[in-house]
Amino acid sequence: MKINFIKYTAAIVLSSIVLIGCSKNDADDNSMMMAEEMGPDFSGTYILKDQIGRPAVNTVFVSSANKDEFNGTIPSEQNANFQGRFETNLKALSPAFANEGDMNALGQDAAAFTGLLATDVLGVSLDGKTTFYDGVAENTLSGRALADDVITVELLLIFGGEDFSENPTLSNDNVDKNDKEFLTSFPYLASPW
Amino acid sequence: MKKSKILLGTALLAVIGLITVAADHIDAPATQGTTADISDFYAFQGENTDNLVFVANVQGLLSPIATDGASFDENVLVEINIDTDGDSVEDLVIQAIPRDGVMHFFGPILPSYTGKNSAISEMSSVRGEVAITPYGSNAIIATSDAGIKMFAGPRDDPFFMDFARYGEIIAGTATGFNNPGADTFAGSNVLSIVVEVPKQMIGTSGAIGAWVEAKVKQ
Fold first, then answer.
1. Which of B8, B160, B209 has its CB closest to that of A121?
2. Does Signal show up as a keyword for this record (chain B) (predicted)?
């Protein structure tokens, strides 16, 4: 209460100073000042609540109890805090990764794969093609285009083994494209339903 | 991989409790269903290949009826973070925040500080604004003096996945996906922020790292 009283008193004093200030000016100055004062207020501190780099990383690799913790951890600190937990969850999800030397189609074992994923930052190329995965090695993780079937790619990397041939019923959700056509021009996303 | 191991894996998965919606839709208890809930993030080369496009979607899984009443929150800053030197710390940010029906954009610009807290770079000379497109209207697009294209408003959710079947697999009531699958996100909308930036404002060549954050006013 006391703090509020001080805040309100300060606000009243400040606003009366502004009012007095305005009343001393002629009409032109007055309207200029009013315009400045009535512009949008962008002040204040904004605190991290949610974040995403690559699709579905928090959803798939972070345990329920840790999801808010992950969203509140800045990317430069994610690997140290989460890589071990990601690796545990990956091996639970796809037990083959627990076998020595088992790898995904990118040639990554469980530690390497989760080491890549734990820092949830999307790599984006400035030089050309931008895609999550298109089968061409040099294009892998060069961005994320709207039409990229990112879930099937992630399922393949989790369940598909070294050559995408393992667990075919788990490594493709068989939904390969969006329910509306994307636009070729800005803003690219389809109009709403 | 043996099938028994897969079943063990799915059982463990259920214990871990991963029954939440991808890609980032309602991904965590504290953000789920709030105006700060990011649903997705995209970054790709534009129609003009000298440009990069960033898409940040919030408030996913909107039905058409719900879309009419949905709006961006003036207390939620959507910040696209760009790392140009590989340390996963933002070197540039693009900030978007709504005020009175207009989405204001600041950057790409060096942030005043990095990390969990942000201040809006309102003194930045690299800025622009676009009227938020109302539901049912054609997309309103603006281009800033620096050549940055901007859009904000409801769009079809571009994400697609048979999430319902995934949930059944995780729950142990199904052993694999259907073929064809069913897109759980068909017919749903999101609130989108789309910004297209000349690459030269970000870097010359190579790769950058990018992610999006929703930050709530203290």
1. B209
2. yes
